[in-house]
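Project outcomes to date are best conveyed with an example. Our students and postdoctoral researchers have been running inverse folding experiments weekly, and each run begins with a structure described purely in tokens. The record below, which covers 512 residues, was selected by the lab manager from last quarter's runs and is presented without edits.
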């Protein structure tokens, strides 16, 4: 034992004890635990209670036991040890290996690893939550878009029908108000859909060649009427050296300027609104235009300007007005998408100035003017034309029937879904079908596929079909064309647009 003790002095991380089978410490060094000789090891720490089994049964066939990572402590010290028991004939040798620092290091590494795993899992769950939230939002907006546009189609359609009847001056004014507010509601829906598309990265910027002066003249014509109604002065100033034809996303530029002009007129009760366009920069076939919209309205408080482009909030000069203020949020997002800039200066009771810089391209050589919308006429060698309306909403059925019957050139039948439409075309020949997309049990896509593929009769299989839906995206239009439809019309639609498309496809079919 003396020899062992001497050896132990060279390794302070090991403590050796000799213990009788009755649990009495016979010999020990004191490298880290000061457990006295002739005392009971059972009193040293509860872990050693396991040795009582060998006190009762000395004839065990085991000769050595090993226990890793045992937490031992007394009043003076605390260690994490690997413990070995060597069972000899007369006594038990107990060896304590102090691995406190190593176990703590390992525990810290394991803890860091666990924290890293937990952090990664947390990020994964957050991303999943955000994706699910985005998916829900987009689904909700798409559903709201469809559900609101359906009754809106009827409202606008019946107002147009009403305007064709004999009305008193007061009735004309009421119809005009209904129509104006319905178009405003439609614009709000468009803003909601655009915000959703911008945030999801699905809004596409489309560059097209357009007549710039004609584009500006449209604003001048529209807002001159608004100015006259409100008793305001409206001026349009366009720099003369701007190219006649520009290349850019005409629709999105229109949306930006229209929103800003609408706001200017909304918050200006007296005075003047000026719309100016100047050339800011030109290089080779690229240029930047500055659009300035200046009003003498109520203005905006300086502290509110940084929040001006936030969604669902509107401001006047004094207080926040809650509401569905999406217009300026759409403007800012569209300006950013077009790689432009927008700045605002304003003073309460003095007015506001919005400056928008947008890049365009232009063709150095003068190109041919844009083609005008082609005119179509119904064939003259036939009486009235038969139209099948496939639509499950009664109010929309009645609206389309009313428009077509009042035109005087059409007979109209109505089917409430694709399944019923198939039965109709098997009994009667139709010149054109107006097909709603969202129906049950057979929707417009399925019904179109059946018509195009299940009949040997060319008159049935090649009947013109126009898709008809509140979902007006480019994807929806492409989906209709891929399904075999000839055209697409978005709800809400104008009377003239509906008649034009029906006339176009009946005329094209007759010319084959």
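After processing, the design step wrote out the following sequence:
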């Amino acid at each position: 034992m003396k020899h062992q003790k001497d050896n132990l002095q060279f390794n302070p991380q090991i403590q050796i004890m000799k213990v009788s089978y009755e649990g009495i410490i016979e010999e020990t060094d004191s490298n880290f635990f000061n457990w006295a000789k002739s005392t009971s090891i059972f009193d040293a720490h509860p872990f050693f209670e396991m040795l009582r089994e060998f006190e009762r049964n000395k004839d065990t066939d085991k000769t050595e036991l090993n226990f890793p990572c045992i937490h031992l402590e007394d009043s003076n010290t605390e260690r994490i040890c690997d413990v070995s028991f060597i069972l000899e004939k007369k006594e038990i040798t107990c060896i304590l290996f102090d691995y406190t620092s190593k176990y703590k290091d390992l525990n810290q590494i394991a803890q860091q690893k666990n924290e890293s795993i937990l952090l990664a899992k947390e990020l994964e769950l957050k991303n999943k939550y955000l994706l699910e939230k985005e998916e829900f939002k987009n689904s909700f907006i798409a559903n709201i878009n469809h559900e609101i546009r359906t009754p809106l189609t009827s409202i606008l359609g019946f107002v147009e029908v009403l305007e064709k009847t004999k009305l008193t001056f007061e009735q004309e004014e009421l119809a005009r108000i209904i129509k104006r507010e319905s178009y405003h509601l439609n614009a709000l829906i468009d803003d909601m859909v655009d915000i959703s598309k911008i945030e999801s990265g699905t809004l596409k910027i489309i560059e097209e060649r357009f007549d710039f002066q004609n584009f500006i003249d449209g604003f001048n014509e529209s807002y001159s009427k608004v100015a006259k109604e409100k008793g305001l002065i409206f001026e349009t100033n366009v720099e003369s050296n701007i190219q006649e034809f520009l290349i850019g996303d005409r629709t999105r530029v229109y949306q930006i300027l229209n929103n800003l002009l609408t706001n200017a007129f909304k918050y200006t009760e007296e005075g003047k609104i000026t719309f100016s366009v100047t050339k800011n920069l030109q290089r080779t076939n690229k240029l930047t235009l500055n659009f300035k919209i200046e009003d003498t309205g109520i203005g905006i408080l300086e502290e509110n300007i940084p929040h001006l482009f936030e969604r669902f909030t509107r401001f006047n000069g004094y207080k926040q007005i809650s509401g569905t203020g999406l217009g300026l949020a759409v403007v800012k997002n569209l300006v950013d998408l077009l790689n432009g800039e927008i700045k605002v200066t304003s003073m309460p009771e003095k007015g506001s100035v919005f400056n928008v810089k947008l890049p365009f391209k232009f063709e150095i050589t003068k190109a041919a003017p844009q083609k005008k919308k082609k005119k179509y006429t119904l064939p003259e060698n036939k009486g009235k034309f038969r139209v099948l309306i496939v639509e499950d909403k009664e109010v929309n059925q009645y609206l389309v029937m009313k428009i077509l019957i009042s035109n005087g050139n059409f007979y109209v039948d109505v089917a409430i879904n694709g399944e019923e439409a198939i039965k109709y075309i098997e009994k009667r020949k139709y010149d054109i079908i107006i097909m709603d997309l969202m129906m049950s049990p057979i929707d417009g896509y399925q019904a179109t596929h059946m018509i195009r593929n299940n009949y040997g009769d060319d008159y049935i299989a090649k009947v013109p079909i126009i898709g008809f839906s509140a979902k007006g995206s480019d994807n929806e239009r492409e989906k209709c064309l891929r399904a075999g439809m000839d055209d697409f019309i978005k709800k809400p639609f104008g009377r003239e647009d509906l008649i034009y498309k029906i006339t176009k496809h009946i005329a094209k079919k007759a010319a084959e």
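The two ends are 115 Å apart (CA to CA). DSSP finds 14 helices and 19 strands in the chain. The training component of this project remains on track.
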